[in-house]
Amino acid sequence: MSARVLREGRVRLWLEPEDRGLAYGDGVFETLLVHAGEPVWWQEHWQRLLRGAARLHLPLPDENEVRRECNAMLGGTGRAVLKIVLTRGSGGRGYAPPADALPTVVLSAHPAPEAPARGLHLRWARTTLATQPLLAGIKHLNRLEQVLARAEWDDADIDEALVCDSEDRVVSAIAANLFVLLGGRWLTPSVERCGVAGVAREWLLANLPGAAVAELSAAEVSHADAIFLCNSVRGILPVRRLGMREWPRDDLVAPPRALLAAAQPAFDQRGA
Amino acid sequence: MSARVLREGRVRLWLEPEDRGLAYGDGVFETLLVHAGEPVWWQEHWQRLLRGAARLHLPLPDENEVRRECNAMLGGTGRAVLKIVLTRGSGGRGYAPPADALPTVVLSAHPAPEAPARGLHLRWARTTLATQPLLAGIKHLNRLEQVLARAEWDDADIDEALVCDSEDRVVSAIAANLFVLLGGRWLTPSVERCGVAGVAREWLLANLPGAAVAELSAAEVSHADAIFLCNSVRGILPVRRLGMREWPRDDLVAPPRALLAAAQPAFDQRGA
Prior knowledge:
Chain A has 272 residues and is α+β, with helices and mostly antiparallel strands. The first copy, chain A, has two domains: 2-110, D-amino Acid Aminotransferase, Chain A, domain 1, CATH 3.30.470; 120-267, D-amino Acid Aminotransferase, Chain A, domain 2 (Alpha-Beta Barrel). Chain A contains seven helices and 15 strands.
């Protein structure tokens, strides 16, 4: 992994210990797939970063500077994962956001994940997500619920978990959004009370025929004709198993995967 | 402000950009008053740090090493604020907590706050706190709700705000706990659904005659005979005004202040 920190026009390899990203999780982040040396869905990620920053009233970095440093860090790497963290910068002690805050941007590059050899095995998380409309939808840095949900198992045969809110509505997986085929339509839960509006989810809602937002119970998800997870690093991942329920074939997930692969060659890989 | 970072047995002035404290707010913190060169309520703070770390399954730092570095950083400073942040350390990308995580400890010293010249002026926060029993009570690093609540005003005449949960129960101030005198007893809200179990609050619940935990509505707080805020940096702070309600005299808050000052000379200052 390599990392660099953009701060007050300089590039560094370290973070100031008084950064508000550490103190309060006062920031947002994006995780992008890099394919053929180019970040995939850059504009969509940058726009979501700006939406999150606007919600939190964060100071904004210069897009060209960030893009330039991303390219410099990636240095022609063909396939990788690029993470961009934006924080309110350094700000002493106390919750009050400094009026003259300058943004900190932390960039890091990571190996791209392997394409899974089979459909995913999922479990239900016991951890539930709190309802907080002020923070819902954006990809902020307050992620302890996800850390707790992911810490519930260390069985290597389980790939991911589905999480519900405190009123038993299904929200998403821990690090991916969820689509469920019910009555011939692909449905995905709302992210207005909690959860993240993933870039892949937004693309599918706009481009997958009949895709829609719907309230979903655990029983409805278990009884769906097919389900898949999606995020902008791994694309569409068919689910093979959820608790005791099994979907032995992936063929119903093939059309959305083909649609995505046609639009974004980065996702045109078996299982990627 | 000065800061130092303890990591893998070394002392540094900078933080690794891949620290999980930044990535996910994956950690806890304590804020202590330093008086006559000594951290006040060290044991109580250290025990709460351990309770928070246990809840999140964080790796533990060595108490003696942390205490030694605190002393070295403070260097005989008479009065100051000491902040201790504990994170799960560095951990690549992904929510799964590394099995072999090593803790990061960030220490910083800040000027002690001035004693306010008058009773506090409070407002009601529009931001409400989400209900999340898994994180309630501990002083974790996911503090965006507090940042949003504090960003609601920049009128220098307002000192703090009271926050409610999503079901209109009063929880606390943004950076302090709340005690309310009702029917001759000092009552403080529960922190089992959200909020922080402050060290000063715990001390008062154990030592202030008749003090108890109770469910409180905004109307009950507004109609109380007296109210005060408390935290372990500022001790007990009488409230003069809350929205339209005014408590012109501090005399009902004098007995708990005298009790605290007798037990902890650090808080034996008019208005401190």
